[in-house]
Design brief:
Helix content: 25-40%
Number of domains: 3
CATH topology of the largest domain: Leucine-rich repeat, LRR (right-handed beta-alpha superhelix)
CATH architecture of the largest domain: Alpha-Beta Horseshoe
Distance between the termini: 33 Å
Number of helices: 14
CATH class of the largest domain: Alpha Beta
Order of helices and strands: HHHEHHEHEEEHEEHEEHEEHEHEHEHEHE
Structural class: alpha/beta
Shape: globular
Strand order of the largest sheet: 1-2-3-4-6-9-11-12-13-14-15-16
Radius of gyration: 24 Å
């Protein structure tokens, strides 16, 4: 008589329950054999997104204190904290994070503006971190942001996301000059300059940020970054030509992938206008192998990708092999059952066919986010709709992905 489940069955059961903390907690108590794997899933990722500051302190910080014990601390790899723009909660959170195996730190609505030397906050962190995500964080100014990013605990970062950053102080124009900012930072830092070794990112995500010329600061020779290993850059909710060109005009010999994440509300500064799809740096254009962008079958998207086609055709030695087009969720707004397709749909598939016909291009992936509860028949209808309008079907593939309510930068598929 079999008294234990095969390990494959055990793994399958626990993986199915991976998103349910209460069920995993029960699994740790089932038997000794279940405990290690269920504990690993239970404590692998901790997060708190309170509705108000009062709901953050006690339960989350109590959990953080509990996992400091030696038999649990090594299990925690990822933490996400929403500090509700309360500086005291930001300080308490950092004072509690003493987890030597932590690799991923996601900070939402952290308020650093009231800490003169916020590098002190990070001294409890170890350099095992490889991913840092800052969303809606508040800093005093650009120099303070540099103070934070240059902390030794971030020396081994591979992925950095800066989105919706804001500054408490908006000073005169001279204090926004990159040289002034770097000088202000270097005169007040605890670190020995020049910094060595530098942070060698592989992925960068940049979103809305007060400085039009933030790239001049991050690319400066005195900054804590070395950009020679950067492989992918994502622009999130920004469509500003000056900002995007500024980042792409850097010395980026390893850059292979550009992703342009669009939402309903895109931002660009009036002084430089919207990004048109024209990449000014010929080295980046030539080395690019993958391009991803939203495609909503609207005229601005048609114009953008028409410019992409012209750029690639006029670029000698282009290596672009993959284009990913993120279509509307469930193809919402497109009448896929209409007998006669609209001019909008016909124009859209003309652009897609032109992309698929580019020399050396191996694949155009049409990524369709699918809402929860969508039946297989709906997927089949979407696939038939796309196939019926694709002239170069061999190089065009349809990929369905579950639509998510909350976007996650640098998603991790493995535990």
């Amino acid at each position: 008589m079999v008294t234990t489940l095969p390990i494959e069955v055990l793994e399958s059961i626990l993986n199915q329950l991976a998103d349910s903390k209460p069920d995993l907690h029960v699994c740790t108590l089932v038997c000794r054999l279940w405990a290690p794997r269920s504990r690993a899933l239970l404590f692998h990722s901790l997060s708190t997104c309170p509705s108000s500051p009062a709901h953050l302190s006690e339960p989350f910080l109590k959990t953080i204190h509990q996992v400091q014990s030696s038999h649990l601390a090594f299990l925690v790899k990822s933490i996400k904290v929403d500090c509700c723009h309360v500086s005291e909660l930001t300080r308490i959170t950092f004072n509690t994070l003493r987890l030597e195996h932590l690799t991923r730190l996601w900070l939402c609505r952290s308020d650093f503006a009231r800490f003169d030397r916020n590098i002190c906050l990070t001294r409890a962190l170890t350099s095992s971190l490889d991913t840092l995500i800052l969303d809606r964080a508040v800093f005093k100014d650009s120099a303070q942001l540099l103070h934070f990013l240059s902390s030794p605990c971030f020396s081994n970062l591979h992925s950095l996301s800066l989105t919706n950053i804001s500054y408490l102080l908006r000073r005169d124009t001279s204090t926004r000059n990159p040289n002034w900012i770097l000088r202000s930072w270097s005169e007040s830092t605890f670190l020995e300059l020049p910094i060595s070794p530098k942070i060698m990112l592989k992925e960068l995500e940049i979103g809305l940020i007060p400085d039009h010329n933030i790239f001049d600061i991050l690319y400066h020779s005195d900054s804590p970054f070395d950009w020679t290993c950067l492989q992918k850059i994502t622009f999130y909710r920004i469509w500003d030509n000056g900002l995007i060109q500024g980042f792409l005009n850097g010395l980026l010999p390893a850059l292979k992938c550009i992703e342009l994440e669009k939402t309903e509300h895109m931002y660009h500064f009036a002084s430089s206008g919207a990004f048109t799809g024209v990449i000014q740096n010929p080295f980046v254009l030539r080395n690019l192998t993958e391009l991803s962008a939203a495609f909503a079958f609207v005229s601005s998207d048609f114009l953008f990708f028409e410019n992409v086609v012209k750029e690639i055709q006029n670029s000698s030695g282009s290596r672009l092999s993959t284009i990913n087009l993120i279509l509307p969720i469930d193809l919402d707004g497109l009448d896929i059952h209409k007998a006669e397709p609209s001019a909008r749909i016909l124009n859209g598939f003309t652009v897609i066919s032109d992309l698929a016909s580019l020399p050396l291009l191996k694949r155009v992936s049409l990524i369709v986010p699918i809402s929860t509860g969508i039946v297989e028949q709906k997927k089949a209808d979407i696939r038939n709709f796309i196939d019926s309008h694709s002239c170069t079907a061999g190089s065009i593939s349809v990929v369905f992905k579950q639509a998510v309510s909350e976007r996650e930068p640098f998603p991790r598929l493995d535990l």
